[in-house]
Amino acid sequence: EHVKPLTTGERVTRFNALFHWAVPAGKELDAGRQVGGFHIMTHAYWREGGPEFNHVNIMGVAHGTEKEKVLAHKRAIDEHLTDSGIEVSYTNVFWGGRSEIKPSEISPAAYREWSKHVGLR
């Protein structure tokens, strides 16, 4: 994966993941709220993937500098969905080559502070 580093040479993100979940009809809004509450998620949305994508209907994007940490967050989200009583019949991760959010757009320190303030996990 490739993204441009900051002017200091530091990489803000290296791995860009699109997470997919298939949840039962009627649970889409609840699942989206649960998924979107995790601080690693830049956004989550409800979109019908159809049979070509195993009927996924919840998708979300996450970025990180270490692939295993991004996957650990995905596992935590999966466990949280189960613990919340939301059945997931299929899930997957797709990796992208670039981030749509430029490193200069969001200060990690400011985001952490904002996340605490609004109660994100």
Structural account:
The chain has helices spanning 28-36, 67-83, 108-118; strands at residues 15-22, 41-46, 58-64, 90-96. With 121 residues, it is an alpha+beta fold. The protein has one domain: Alpha-Beta Plaits (2-Layer Sandwich), CATH 3.30.70. It has a 4-stranded antiparallel sheet. The model has no long low-confidence stretch (mean pLDDT 87).
Topology, please?
Elements: E1 15-22, H1 28-36, E2 41-46, E3 58-64, H2 67-83, E4 90-96, H3 108-118
Antiparallel strand pairs: 1-3, 1-4, 2-3
The 3D shape can be described as globular
Q: What is the strand tally?
A: 4
- At the first level of CATH, the class is Alpha Beta
CATH homolog superfamily: Lrp/AsnC effector binding domain/regulation of amino acid metabolism (RAM) domain
Cα-to-Cα separation, first versus last residue: 26 Å
Oligomer: single chain
Total number of distinct structural domains: 1
How many separate helices?
3
Helix content: 25-40%
Structural class: alpha+beta
**Low-confidence parts lasting 5 or more residues at pLDDT below 50?**
none
Give the integer mean of the pLDDT values: 87
Tell me about the largest β-sheet.
Answer: 4 strands, antiparallel
